[in-house]
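Weekend entry, working from home. Most of the wet-lab plans are on hold until the incubator is repaired, so I used the time to fold the two sequences that have been sitting in the queue since the last round of cloning. Logging both here for the record. First:
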Amino acid sequence: MRLVDQPRWLDEREQRAWRGYRRMRRLLDLELARDLARDAGLSEPDYDVLSDLSETPDQRLRLSELADRMLWSRSRLSHHLTRMQQRGLVTREECATDGRGAVVALTAEGRRAIEAAAPGHVAAVRRHLIDLLTPDEVAALDALSHRVVDHLTGRDGARG
């Protein structure tokens, strides 16, 4: 029988910070999603796909790489891309270097959609988060978010 370590319960300050972060994240995600849907007719996943594709030199990504970036399964992304294809935002092509792989490409309509959505989205990000913070708080947010991401992705040396 394996002994289980006793949990290190959060103290009052840590509990307040954790609960505040969780509530902030849910409310911020909800507000940004509402703004995107209302102002641009896009969902957050639509925006993520379009912005990731628009930031590549040839506006294409392998489906597997896009799924990894979004932290989605290939199957889930494939279903979402089907809906985006039906709206003319993206196309799927065979991968030239690997016949089994697929490449997702931004269409002209997709380019127009992300260019139309981006100004309103950045304004919402500013309104609901960035402009509420001091420059020191933005720097702290940058540092802590990257520290957690590096830990969770194994880039901090903690994994594997």
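Second, folded right after the first finished:
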Amino acid sequence: MISPEFLFSNIPQKQSAYFFSVIRKIGKEKTIKKGETIIRFGSHPSFFFYIVSGACKTSIRKNDKAYILGFTFEGDVDCCPTSLWKGLANNFAIEAVTDTKILVCQLKDFQQVCSEKKYYTITQNILANYISILENRVIEALSLTAEERYQQLLLQQPQLIDKIPLSQIAAYLGITQERLSRIRRKIKI
């Protein structure tokens, strides 16, 4: 859920380049098939991952119903911060919605490679970005229509949005597929 725009805009360019050099150094490349889970609900993952290509979704299950909290795309970093930094069981799952290639980075490896100062600066920025994304999603869910939220999703990743099943986009927006189809027709006009 961490966008590269945040890393580039809130970490000095030199430090951002350093961050990406470290994850390329320690990251283990892994190919995830569409529908495969990267992080399971209730697990204690000790890693974060960088999406080289593809897209993922973050979802929860409540009362036997799945809710999609958001999508992450190529160039994003994703993880479960409460599990990663606090050791708590995570309360959501992350799954590939397209065939996806990721770099899996163990937090302990990241910590060993970085100086203490760089480690804390980068992780603070990651956590601040994560909070910012969650705040924006709550604000958008309360203040924007489904059509406006869909348009934002289109602006975010126009080339990948067509690869995400419409049922998942509709679930994320909290609307039916039929309503999403009407919105899509309206926007194309």
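Plan for Monday: verify the second prediction. The domain at 4-141 is CATH 2.60.120.10 (Jelly Rolls).
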